[in-house]
Amino acid sequence: MILGLGLAHPSEAARNPATTCQLTIDKAAATLVQKTIKAEQACLKKLEKGRLPLDTRCVGEGGSVSPITHEKTKEKIVQLRNKARRAIDRRCTSTGVDLLSAPPDGLGFPVWCQAIEPSCSFVLSSSLQARECVICTHIAAANYLVRIAHPSVLSMPSATPTPRPNPSCGDATHHLTLTTDAGDYDRGWTGISHDGAFGAFRQLEADLCCAGNVCVAENGYAVGSTIGGPQPLSSGGVPICVQNVLREPIVGTYDLSTGCGDLALPIEARVFLEQDIGKPCPLCIGDATPNDGARSGTCEGGTAQGSPCDVHSLNASLGPTSVDCPPAGSSVGEINIDLDLTTGTAAVSSSRDCIASSFEPGSCYCPDQLQPNSCTDRQCVNGSCPAGPIDGVCSSARHRSCRIEKAGADCRDIFPGAGGCIAKTRPCFGPEITRTGQCGTSTATWVSAGFCLPTTRAVAINTTTGLPGPGALTVDTTVDIHVQ
Q1: Do residues 187 and 136 share a domain?
Q2: Which range, of 58-72, 221-235, 263-277, averages the lowest pLDDT?
Q3: Tell me: the pLDDT tens digits for 238-249?
Q4: Domain that holds residue 315
Q5: Burial status of residue 293 (CB atoms within 10 A of its CB: 0-12, 13-18, 19 or more)
Q6: Are residues 332 and 217 part of one domain?
């Protein structure tokens, strides 16, 4: 599949950098497909001969290799993917060829990754994203061809993680409820998914076993419980709906006199790739009082369309959601996130080498993170990229992208109430991620910084957000303590 458009024949423009770039993409993409198929088939051959456990997964899904559990196969394909990236970078971006520009100076990539595989469909706003479009679509092609030839791949069982033991502090003396008032959620290394609203009325509960004012926190939910309503997130033209499920017991400490605390919240985030940028999650319409237990609203969309619901979360731009209104379809990722929440200061420094070898050693935060940020000059200063890129967003609907030169044409003219198009300097994570909380017995700010967000099976999400990559969270809460 050749994604460049309208280039002259190589013999007519042998010295044209764009032509060299196109030929490099052709070769790198073809090699990636062939060798990915070879690696997956080699793993399947071992599986069929009984040399691997029956639950071994040898084949990826869509454009992702994350579902592969045979580490040698996964490592081989990751190496192939990185080799293709380096080849394209060497002959394209490093020679000044803009993959999005029209020929003859560029390759003329469209503004959208035109892929049959939905997980590879995402907005292309840079040469980096165009390159990832090539990588994603060709890995997806390899996975598709192997799956067609090996139907048994589709019925392979998945491994079940072993949960940690459930701690117990004895009989609970108090019950803690934190209700979110506002929050800021920064996700991934690209910066495109930073400054996301966390949503109000989300509740987190824990039992407290106290001796005087000093308490041990635990439980509050059964493992497997959904925490809060589905979380709508929309950025870079990629809307997702996330169900947060408790995968291990909550543990931590809390001081009744100061409202200071630390809570470890291990969750499994079940990610659904949606179609409507302005409505990533099903809504609960008509419920006036959130979290009162009265299902006075009605589900709009999802698997419970028309069913009664109680609002459990409210995003000012993306609407009210409810546990009673789950999203439809299948998730594109069940990713483990370890939120270490504190009312103190959370600070993490980068220490891992990035996959992209052109960056300084120790510049990244997470395993297999591609690069630290997407700043034009690679310099992140106080959480933003001073040299760009500059993104256009609608002033009253920040989840909507727009063309700055078109003023309100992409915003209020199409979506009433979205405001005008404003310029926003791209946010970023620098060499240290720091968030500072605030203790309090009636209101408190809880933070978490530097937790790693793994990849999903949707490359559209991974590429736009920058996964795997770090995350940071700041949440203002109302505190409620009940004596048991």
Answers
A1: no
A2: 58-72
A3: 999 999 999 988
A4: 174-389+426-483
A5: exposed
A6: yes
